[in-house]
Amino acid sequence: MKLSIVVPAYNEESRIGRMLDQFLPFFSRRYGDQVEIIVVVNGSRDGTAAVVQRYARDHAGMRCIVEPGNVGKGGALILGFREARGDLIGFVDADGATPPEAFDDLVTQIGDAAAIIASRWAPGARVSPRQTLQRRIASRLFNGQVRMLFGLRLTDTQCGAKLMRRDALLPLLPHFGITRWAFDVDLLYQIKRAGGRIVEIPTTWSDVEGSKLEVGRASVQMFLALVRLRLLYSPLKFLVRLYRPGMFPMVHLPK
Q1: Which CATH number characterizes residue 12's domain?
Q2: How many domains does the chain divide into?
Q3: How do residues 117-158 score in pLDDT, each as one tens digit?
Q4: 3 state SS for the chain
Q5: Is the pLDDT of residue 255 over 50?
Q6: pTM over the 0.85 mark
Q7: 211: in domain
């Protein structure tokens, strides 16, 4: 199989149907039976699972995984990655902010890279409507912290559209150390540590109504997540276990 697209979904009852209405016909026409879409419903308290299961019954190239516990975006992605059969394995947000054409750009432009990611900040990116000043400032501060702490010279580690080669991704699955805010950084940092090349391309992205993100609170949580992740890749990783001994219910600490 050529392509697996994993979609983590947490309380997305009102938005995921529109996203699937775009992605399913687009990728079915383009790749036929060589593509699969795996939606991982993670700890949702609304009707997301019922919506996704209805689509899965009507589309042979789609699967639904329901995880009752709240394992975070990263935990949901790990579950999806484990089930993926594609030579290329990627993920996209359930809100439909990334159109299928933009995700397909990752497929056509990955070349021989280990991973390719979409960027809302690379020259040529199209973002509509323009994000608020508060969100733009928070994004740039976070990106500066990622560059300083992890040496990832990328403009946008958090855009929810990424694609990896199967042989670059699967060996990393036992070693992910965090499943929430800093999962994307952990993923990219581990690919870099393994010697994989990461390509970044400008994308098309739309801000979709319904986001529950509180920028101020999220910024603090994301900063703390980065600090914890940096500690995990240092001789001081034992401090993270002391601080939150139960934070790794389904993943292993990196070696």
Answers
A1: 3.90.550.10
A2: 1
A3: 999 999 999 999 888 888 899 899 999 999 999 999 999 999
A4: CCEEEEEEECCCCCCHHHHHHHHHHHHHHHHHHHEEEEEEEECCCCCHHHHHHHHHHHCCCEEEEEECCCCHHHHHHHHHHHHCCCCEEEEECCCCCCCHHHHHHHHHHCCCCCEEEEECCCCCCEEECCCCHHHHHHHHHHHHHHHHHHCCCCCCCCCCEEEEEHHHHHHHHHHCCCCCCCHHHHHHHHHHHCCCCEEEEECEEECCCCCCCCHHHHHHHHHHHHHHHHHHCCCCCHHHHHHCCCCCCCCCCCC
A5: no
A6: yes
A7: yes
